């Protein structure tokens, strides 16, 4: 069954083109397009999506505040932020708000669709240049860290989450099974006191854990 996607974006041309791409993909269907997030709670309730595509710059309410609302009212519903700009502060603000990933609008259609699948599988996809900025932020300067008692393997897997890898990709890179990845990630969540990949990535950024 095709996954249900809705789009918030004030650019009508982009709304139409992304909706068409989703509907032609075979794996996804667009069940709603909205030019702003003013009625976000009602729009999401009515369209029952599996994932939300969120423009970061919209009139009335920007995508970061809208993402906070999604987290408040819809729990773990995946949200992917889309933007034209690589602004460090807005990247981290989006992740802190609970976004599952951060994609540039110029991302190729193939990579864009892959990112939707990764987010639906629990990953945190990011455009390559965005992931590089996140990693630079990690290593910018060394500060005192709280000890979460992560093993080297857990740190390694957490670093892949930060890069936006899906569980399947992590399993392939580490040459372990998908179930083993799941077990490691559950242990990471327990040690970090978080409940999702988004929270784990956000905390890892804040605390510079990898």
How much of the sequence lies in strands comes to 5-15%
Helicity range of the residues? 40-55%
Widest sheet: strand order?
2-1-3-4-5
First and last CA, distance: 37 Å
Indicate the low-confidence ranges by residue numbers.
Answer: none
Going by helix content, strand content and strand pairing, the class is alpha/beta
Q: Summarize the biggest pleated sheet.
A: 5 strands, parallel
Structural features, described:
It is a single chain. The protein has 210 residues and is of the alpha/beta class. 54% of the residues lie in helices and 13% in strands. The chain has ten helices and five strands, in the order βαβαβαβαβαααααα. The chain has helices at 12-25, 40-47, 63-74, 88-97, 109-120, 128-139, 152-162, 167-174, 178-192, 197-207, and strands spanning 3-8, 28-34, 51-55, 79-83, 101-104. It has a five-stranded parallel sheet, sandwiched between helices. Strand 4 (79-83), helix 4 and strand 5 (101-104) form a beta-alpha-beta unit. The chain is globular. It starts with a strand and ends with a helix. The model has no long low-confidence stretch (mean pLDDT 88).
